[in-house]
Amino acid sequence: MFYYIDWTYIVLVIPAMILALYAQNKVNSTFKKYSRVASRSGMTGAQAARRLMELNGIYDVSIERVSGNLTDHYDPSKKVLRLSDSVYSDTSVAAIGVAAHETGHAIQHARGYVPLTLRTVMVPLANLGSTLSMPLIFLGILFSFSSVMGNSMINLGILLFGLSVVFTIITLPVEFNASRRAVACLGDSGILYDDEIGGVKKVLSAAAMTYVASTAVALANFLRLIIIFGGRRRD
User: Is residue 199 part of a domain?
Assistant: First the structure.
């Protein structure tokens, strides 16, 4: 029996997924390693975040605790910095590093960092794209008996998927810049010693790899859709 082999999935998607799995494992193991290294300042992640924001003249951002592991994020729409259970009250080098990274986003917001503004604008569009793209493509395939309707649905689905890809690309400079700000601020503030900042760099570098991997997965799937449907017959 003949079986169809989807070479686009093997060549494009699988390598990207392997990279994503490696990146996720790397960030988890690196965070776990440095979460066992207590900072000599004894400051918690929440305290470090508050200190860094004050040093940067930011007093209108609240800090909240959020459940989960590494679910830390900054919400620019509400000006809330949310730190996970493993960061909020922990005094480790890893916790302070993650808290400083999220504080970097708050500093970006306060300084009007353009890529962050673009990413914020893209959030609803990316959500729309990730939700509707595949259903539209599947409907386009089902309605393939009508070339105009089928092609239109597929094209719209690919376009919407492209919005989520653009979002992941815009996310890269935002995350890299937040990490650079975090390292610089920690060095200037004296919250961590130089050898401790080395640990922070490793944690944030591992985290950055997950964003690179996510972008690779998104691009791989986008290219796959273009290759699969780009050559279809148009009547």
Answer: yes
Active centre residues (catalytic): 102
Q: What is the pLDDT of residues 70-95, one digit of tens each?
A: 899 999 999 999 999 999 999 999 99
pTM of the model: 0.90
* Domain-embedded: residue 1: no
123: containing domain: 7-230
Domain presence at residue 235: no
- 125, 193, 208: which is closest to 160 by C-alpha? 125
pLDDT band at 233 (very low <50, low <70, confident <90, very high): low
Tokens describing residue 62 = 């609240």
Instruction: Give the span between the Cα atoms of 54 and 45, in whole angstroms.
Output: 14
Count: domains in the chain: 1
Of 191, 193, 216, residue with least CA distance to 52: 191
Residue 190 DSSP label = T
Residue 217 lies in a domain: yes
Beta strands 80-84; 73-75: pairing state: antiparallel
